[in-house]
């Protein structure tokens, strides 16, 4: 067990087996499920881990408790990858008091049929445990309705549920000062865009609620414990939840026979020729939507193009548009292009998508019939987008 503060231990586990988080999102670096144990005058566990890791999880708790019982379980988030062992905990520690809010307990009954031994807290409530004072902040829709944060006033530690989390296992080190954190930042943006992205306004409300709190350590349920780099983690979540993109372009295309791809190449060259240095280019048939969404959240401008398909739109682009719409991404500059042979639909559909998202359309949509050159129009679209970014 790794001690992260005076009498606080990391009780989490690494998952290097799962290939798709939520059976949707690739995990090339795996993922951690983080739980934390306070062993002061009262023993307090904060969240559990995925049920697949029960044996490892309980072994860690047993070693840290060293014969003591577990007095409290704090549930910050009821999603099964964090609540999976609650039923077993209650069996092992029948007198365990479970701390949560009203919405937590509705889910606790629904998932695990646990309805007794509960200690309900409301926003701002505190729990005195002798050596620690815990304060609870409700954070609804970050990213489930029951979510709350637990703040240890004694050690200035925020246990933040999924907020400030990231994909990626913890490969030896637990605290950011023990590792090279470089690989986690892109994975944090990808995690945010995939899992949390729809809920920008609730995240802003939660950040505002915490604005006056002295936070010296952030313990999320996924990824490193943030100490020296906690401000960077907060800043990333703040920027993304305000839908503030960096000065770059996400250029996404679908292509059946290469014509739309050549249009995308021409637009990309024009962007670069006109000073755009950050260009994230994705062939939608090769790039998983997880990475495309990451870049759409990360950059200020989006250009999408594809062929007409069966009097509709290229299916993989259509699926991507749906994912973007679900996340309600705001404040993007938008351009589009398309190809067709006998009946053009793609550009009409893409234009309507931009209007639905209330994105600012830049330049003129470019539509290519068969292989008739649209090189000049593609160059102009890239130039117009670059000018708007400047």
Brief overview:
This protein is an alpha/beta fold and 390 residues long.
Describe the structure.
This protein is an alpha/beta fold and 390 residues long. Helices cover 35% and strands 24% of the residues. The chain has helices spanning 54-65, 80-83, 86-92, 102-112, 182-196, 200-209, 230-241, 259-273, 289-298, 315-327, 346-356, 375-389; strands at 2-5, 8-10, 13-15, 20-21, 25-26, 31-33, 36-39, 43-46, 72-74, 97-100, 118-120, 126-128, 133-138, 148-152, 157-159, 217-219, 246-253, 279-283, 299-309, 312-313, 333-340, 360-361, 366-369. The protein has a seven-stranded mixed sheet. Strands 17, 18, 19, 20, 21, 22 and 23 form a seven-stranded mixed sheet that branches. Strands 12-13-14-15-16 form a five-stranded mixed sheet, with no helix packed on it. Strand 12 (126-128) and strand 13 (133-138) form a beta hairpin. Helix 5 (182-196) crosses helix 9 (289-298), helix 6 (200-209) crosses helix 7 (230-241) and helix 8 (259-273) packs across helix 12. The longest helix has 15 residues, at 182-196. The chain is elongated and about 75 Å long. The chain starts with a strand and ends with a helix. The model has no long low-confidence stretch (mean pLDDT 97).
């Amino acid at each position: 067990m790794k001690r992260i503060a005076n009498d606080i231990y990391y009780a989490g586990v690494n998952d290097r087996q799962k290939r798709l988080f939520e059976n949707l999102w690739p995990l090339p670096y795996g993922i951690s499920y983080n739980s934390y144990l306070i062993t002061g005058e009262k023993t307090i566990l904060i969240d559990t881990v995925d049920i697949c890791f029960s044996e490892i999880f309980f072994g860690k708790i047993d070693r840290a408790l060293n014969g003591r019982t577990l007095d409290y379980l704090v549930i910050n988030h009821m999603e099964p990858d964090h609540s999976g062992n609650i039923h077993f905990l209650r069996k092992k520690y029948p007198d365990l008091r479970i701390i949560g809010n009203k919405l937590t307990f509705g889910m606790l009954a629904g998932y695990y049929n646990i309805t007794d031994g509960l200690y309900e807290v409301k926003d701002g409530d505190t729990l005195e445990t002798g050596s620690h004072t815990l304060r609870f902040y409700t954070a609804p829709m970050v990213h489930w309705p029951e979510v709350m944060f637990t703040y240890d006033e004694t050690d200035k530690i925020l246990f933040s549920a999924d907020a400030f989390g990231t994909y990626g296992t913890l490969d030896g080190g637990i605290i950011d000062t023990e590792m090279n954190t470089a690989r986690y930042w892109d994975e944090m943006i990808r995690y945010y865009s995939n899992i949390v992205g729809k809920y920008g306004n609730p995240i802003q409300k939660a950040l505002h609620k915490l604005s006056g709190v002295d936070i010296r350590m952030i313990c999320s349920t996924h990824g490193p414990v943030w100490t020296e780099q906690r401000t960077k983690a907060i800043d990333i979540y703040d920027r993304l939840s305000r839908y503030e993109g960096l000065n770059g372009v996400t250029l996404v295309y679908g292509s059946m026979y290469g014509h739309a791809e050549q249009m995308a190449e021409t637009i990309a060259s024009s962007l670069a020729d006109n000073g755009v240095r950050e260009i994230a280019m994705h062939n939608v048939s090769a790039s998983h939507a997880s990475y495309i969404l990451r870049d759409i959240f990360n950059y200020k401008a989006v250009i999408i193009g594809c062929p007409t398909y069966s009097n509709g739109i290229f299916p993989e682009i259509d699926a991507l548009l749906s994912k973007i719409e679900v996340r309600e991404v705001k404040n993007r500059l938008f351009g589009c292009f398309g190809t067709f042979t006998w009946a053009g639909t793609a550009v009409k559909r893409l234009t309507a998508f931009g209007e639905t998202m209330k994105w600012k359309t830049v330049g003129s949509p470019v539509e290519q019939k068969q292989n008739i050159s649209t090189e000049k129009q593609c160059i102009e679209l890239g130039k117009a987008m670059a000018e708007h970014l400047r």
